[in-house]
Specification:
heterodimer, A: 260 residues, alpha/beta, globular, B: 223 residues, 9 helices
Chain lengths: 260, 223
């Protein structure tokens, strides 16, 4: 499986995420310890690791859904303060950072199109007509334009997750976070969600993805990060990490997940 | 059983026009009180959810006091007690509305709290992740869903409060029970008249139940 990486990433560009020595404690548990992570525009970073390793916590720190206690975190040029004291900066960051959740988290009381238009109308002050046009275009792009007037409960899991993706994209984010986007899906629906994400990566979106889909990771990632007990143990290109892991914990993790 | 007993249908029917005169008071006190109670409930229910102790504790105190004392004592306190402080009498209907308001307000505060808390954390996370402020997330995401879940409990409280107004006969409000008592005083047909009183309460509460069921069914669309 070779990766056709036609896109060019400007490695000298200012990183959109700059995380230095980030530490998070949950009571006695040291969830993240001294995590350094930079993401440059256009880059697709995939985070892998066992459950409970802290990978979801790490990605949730980037848009402030989790607080951290120590370290420096800068997203899109704005600094996130430790202990959830960011206030206005956090909200500004969130308007530029989209997120897709494991459980979709669509708004069940709103139709598909209203799910997508809510934030552009309330946050970006878009008119209803504008917002709706954008919503329909995005639904087209993720292949479910015909579902616009349905409610989330009327859709399959795979369709719901594609709506969630369209909802996040409607804010025209500069960075997209994916927290195990296919983990709650039936196997036959995983492909359609991964296809939409693949398309997004091809268009040059900056993405940070937590996933268990190893072949997908290998295919779309510019960089793969293996995290173990809250620490980044190994990172590199997919070929480096998957074919020639240096750290023995990475080796044993990959041996476990790649054999079946 | 009294063998000579005969149900006096005529007395029962004759009492109805007289009893009907009490219904506007019953409805005014229940729905007036419930409306104010809902406003109180929204405010105190949300204060109860606040992480700030100086918001949360007054709400807890209010809820515990007015949920923990009988509505009859509350109305007696308002009607007979408060004039001592205010220096002037309080109209019985006003006292009744006030009692239903503070009493139902305490219960509705808990209904509001429960409804809001029942919404999955992921909904709030999705809202704020899109850049909505906390207030916008509450208004457009949490509240509409929470309110739907509150409807059955609010309906329950409505029915309870309607029945509670029957206690206000003691302060002389001319509501249903009071009208019945007066009518019985002249006709001595307690069985017939109280049966009619009961049926009229049922007519009111069943209508409300039906309206709520329709509202709930409508609310289910999209859930």
């Amino acid at each position: 499986m070779t990766k056709q990486n036609a896109k060019k990433i400007d490695t000298s560009a200012a990183p959109i995420v700059r995380m230095e020595k980030l530490n998070k404690h949950f009571g006695k548990l040291h969830v993240l310890s001294d995590v350094d992570l930079s993401v440059i525009p256009g880059e697709v970073v995939v985070i892998i690791g066992a459950s409970g390793s802290g990978k979801s916590t790490l990605i949730r720190c980037i848009n402030g859904l989790e607080e951290f206690q120590k370290g420096h975190l800068e997203v899109d040029g704005k600094v996130l303060e430790p202990n959830g004291k960011s206030g206005r900066a956090l909200q500004q960051i969130r308007t530029e950072v989209g997120m897709v959740f494991q459980q979709f988290n669509l708004f069940p009381h709103l139709s598909v199109v209203d799910n997508i238009t809510l934030a552009p109308m309330k946050v970006r002050s878009a008119s209803r007509a504008e917002a709706k046009q954008t919503a329909l275009r995005l639904l087209e792009r993720v292949g479910i334009a015909d579902q616009a007037d349905k409610y989330p409960s009327q859709l399959s899991g795979g369709q719901q997750q594609r709506v969630a993706l369209a909802r996040a994209l409607a804010m025209e984010p500069r960075l997209m976070l994916f927290d195990e986007p296919t983990s709650a899906l039936d196997p036959e629906m995983i492909g359609e969600v991964l296809d939409a994400m693949r398309e997004l990566a091809r268009e040059g979106m900056t993405m940070v993805i937590v996933t268990h889909e190893m072949s997908f990771a290998r295919e779309v990632a510019d960089r793969v990060i293996y995290i173990h007990k809250g620490q980044i143990v190994e990172q590199g290109t997919p070929d480096e990490v998957f074919d020639n892991p240096q750290n023995e914990r990475t080796q044993s993790f990959l041996a476990r997940v790649l054999t079946h | 059983m009294n063998a000579s007993f005969e149900f006096d249908w005529q007395a029962a029917f004759d009492s109805v026009p007289y009893l009907l005169a009490g219904i506007p008071y019953t409805l005014l006190i229940s729905f007036g009180g419930l409306f104010i109670g809902f406003v109180i409930g929204m405010i105190f229910g949300l204060l109860r959810l606040s992480p700030a102790p100086w918001f949360r504790w007054p709400a807890i105190a209010y809820i515990e006091i007015f949920r923990g004392t009988p509505v009859l004592v509350q109305v007696l306190f308002i009607f007979y007690g408060l004039p001592q402080i205010l220096g002037g009498p309080i109209d019985a209907v006003t006292a009744g509305i006030a009692a239903i308001a503070v009493n139902s307000g305490a219960y509705i505060s808990e209904v509001v709290r429960g409804g809001v808390q029942s919404i999955e954390r992921g909904q709030r996370e999705a809202g704020v992740s899109l850049g909505l402020t906390r207030t916008q997330t509450f208004r457009y995401v949490i509240w509409p869903q929470g309110f739907r879940r509150m409807i059955p409990a609010l309906g329950n409280q409505g029915i309870i409060s309607i029945k509670d107004t029957s206690l206000f006969a003691v302060i002389g409000v001319g509501e249903l029970v009071r009208q019945g008592q007066i009518y019985i005083a002249t006709t001595f047909r307690a069985l017939e008249v109280y049966l009619m009183v009961a049926l009229l309460y049922l007519a009111i509460t069943l209508t409300l139940s039906l309206a709520l069921r329709l509202l709930e069914r409508k609310g289910l669309v999209g859930q």
